[in-house]
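User: Second chain of the day. Same drill as before.
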Amino acid sequence: MNADEFWKFIDSAKEGAGADTDARPGVLLSLLSSLTAEELQSFQRHYDQQIRVAYRWDLWAAAYIINGGCSDDGFRYFRDWLISEGRPVFEAALKDPDSLAELPHVDPADLEPFGYVALELYAQKGAGELDRDFSTEGAEPAGTAWKEEDVGSLLPRLDAKYA
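Assistant: Same format as last time:
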């Protein structure tokens, strides 16, 4: 599986779920259900790569503003949600996290179950334990750390929308 194929699954899950963000994991599960264990492992590698790429202080600031605070786990679930938003939104947020202000109001911006779809299917296929990348666990996010009192000034459009 290449990156374009990976994002096609993600974008199709978002489209299939329509306005119901919570339906995205179920739609993705249906879309991935015919994949082999090897293809699911490849999908997971691409997923984990996006989780790593988005492990940045500026995106954590976006999660903090949108969700009214954000723990370590909450930031992981925010990145699951961000991936579920599809490639255009994800890539725009990487370029400018404040671009998330252009999306409809979301509360909360987290989607933990989306991150477990390939894992669940892999187990259902009797393939054992899916290899996952936990390199961001306990690591420092990329970029410059921020102070709580300064987060709003970093992303003024998001701050104005969610204040």
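The mean pLDDT is 95.

User: Great, on to the next one.
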